[in-house]
Amino acid sequence: MNFLASTWVGIWLTGLGRIAMLTRETVLSLFTFKARWRDLLYQMYFIGIKSQSVVIVTGAFTGMVLGAQTYFQFHKVKMDTATLAVVSVSMCDELGPVLTALMVAGRVGAAIAAEIGTMRVTEQIDALRTLATHPVDYLVVPRLLAAHAALPLLTLEAIAVGIGSCYVVGVYLLGIDPAFLWDNALKYTHDVDIVIGFSKAFIFGGIIAMISCYKGMTCPMGAEGVGKATTEAVVYSSITILISNFFLTLIIGKLVGLL
Amino acid sequence: MIEVRHLTKSFGSQRILDNVDLQIESGESAVIIGRSGGGKSVLLKHLIALLKPDSGEVLVDGESIIPMNERQLLRVREKFGMVFQGAALFDSMTVEENVAFPLMRKKNFTQAEMDRRVAAALDMVDLPGTQKKKPAELSGGMRKRVGLARAIIYEPRIILYDEPTTGLDPIMSDSIDKLIIRVRDQLKVTSVVVTHDMRSARRVGNHVFMLHNKRIHASGPPEEIFASQDPIVRQFIDGVADEKETIL
Ligand SMILES: Nc1ncnc2c1ncn2[C@@H]1O[C@H](COP(=O)(O)OP(=O)(O)OP(=O)(O)O)[C@@H](O)[C@H]1O
Ligand SMILES: [Mg+2]
């Protein structure tokens, strides 16, 4: 037992167990606790509004480069007008949610872990507890709710900007016929693609908030500890997003197939 | 009433507290003295269950707080206020928001009432007009006093002070001592004060506990402790260091 606990498998499993406990505590708190609007609004502002520039740039350049590359390949087989359809479907299903989530993980995940980690090493979390405030109620719940709300909206923004910029590049730079381009895009992009992107973004928001809060709350003591927690929050969030994206694609694909 | 029974705590292989017993009556002010690094802060954190012991019990008003989870502890902690050794102010908030934090959770205060109380609490610790400052703009001693204001503003029934006067000038120390005594007498608060300052220990305490070598070495009313002939107690009170032979 002790041998197992000291190996990296053991450490990994312990971490998983702890993060599950934190999630359970958070869900319980969601049902019983009325989150303070002020905190929630501030987190939404920080996670949602402040992330827009990053997300818009990501969406725009991804849309443009994907559009250009698709055009170069499709032009060889005279399918130029299908370019936007490809970009629109891949932005909605995969690139929109994943790239948005990765960018937000880098920006917001790091900030959350550093803030909560610093609060831990300077005993501010202990001070919260002595003031009869549950750290999960006060720190985790507003961030989780804000991330859940912000990520789908940011993703939608990235998708729209990506498709728009691809359209501009396609029509004005590459000279594709705009009517056919747009018509094809509408024909091959279905409502379900938007739903897929939306649900993935919702889940990724939870992943970023939970992992970053967890890393902050379990931050090792000292300045080095805060640095380590911050790095790990970003790395683990990003990896988890990429891995879970694959399984989400499979699961959602199956579900959609059944419907 | 706070009761500690057979409390034992280690960090890793390092034993900090070994079978500590103590009892603090309601309305009494207990002073805990002991060497630096002797485990006074650790003991104090056990009283409010910020740390859980390896074995032993802590009872607050007859209720064992060790088996409780964080959520059950919220109710018990409503009774407590704590002043941290390092102040532990929320550094993203202003002084005003820090001090008002405990009030904000009780929704039945108007803004005006809250402002009035914050101003009164800051006056008590001699920091009028600092409402809009951030903790980073304050000196160490000022921060500690803001921490004190935050702990007393909601009139808890038990207040734990971790070295409230360390790092303050003699006049300010005196005024904080008087504040602790006033709070105790007017609000009938149970206070637990950890201190190195023998003068304040003598003035503030009804009961002195000396922590030495991982356990309570001596306990009793201040007169008794300060007149004690026990060599360890004497050495501590007189502040005599053991001779050291070598210089590097
Ligand atoms: N979180 C912790 N992890 C590991 N060791 C700790 C921890 N907290 C305290 N210790 C150890 O416990 C011992 C007692 O620490 P404590 O802070 O209680 O001392 P203290 O009596 O309050 O000293 P001082 O008067 O200097 O504040 C120290 O040796 C310290 O190294
Ligand atoms: Mg201490």
Structure description:
The complex is a heterodimer of chains A (259) and B (248). Chain A has one domain. Chain A has helices at 2-6, 8-32, 37-47, 52-76, 83-121, 124-130, 135-173, 178-188, 191-217, 223-258. Chain A has 259 residues and is mainly α. In chain A, α4 packs antiparallel against α5, α5 (83-121) packs antiparallel against α10 (223-258) and α9 (191-217) packs antiparallel against α10. The termini of chain A are far apart. Chain B is of the alpha/beta class and 248 residues long. Chain B has a domain at 28-37 and 78-238: 3-Layer(aba) Sandwich (Rossmann fold), CATH 3.40.50.300. In chain B, the strands form 2 sheets. Chain B has a 6-stranded mixed β-sheet, sandwiched between helices. In chain B, α3 crosses α4 and α3 runs parallel beside α5 (140-152). The longest helix of chain B is centred in the C-terminal third of the chain and has 18 residues, at 170-187. The radius of gyration of chain B is 19 Å and the shape is globular. Chain A binds chain B through residues 25, 28, 115, 118-119, 122-124, 126-127, 129-134, 136, and chain B through 45, 48, 50, 70-71, 73-75, 77-78, 80-82, 84, 86, 88-92, 101-102, 105, 150-151. The complex binds adenosine-5'-triphosphate (ATP) and magnesium ion. Magnesium ion binds next to α1 of chain B.
Instruction: Please state the average pLDDT score of chain A.
Output: 92
Strand pairing plus helix content of chain A: what structural class? mainly alpha
Shape of chain B: globular
Number of strands of chain B: 10
Keywords:
heterodimer, A: 259 residues, mainly alpha, elongated, B: 248 residues, alpha/beta, Rossmann fold, 6-stranded mixed sheet, 4-stranded antiparallel sheet, 9 helices, binds adenosine-5'-triphosphate, binds magnesium ion
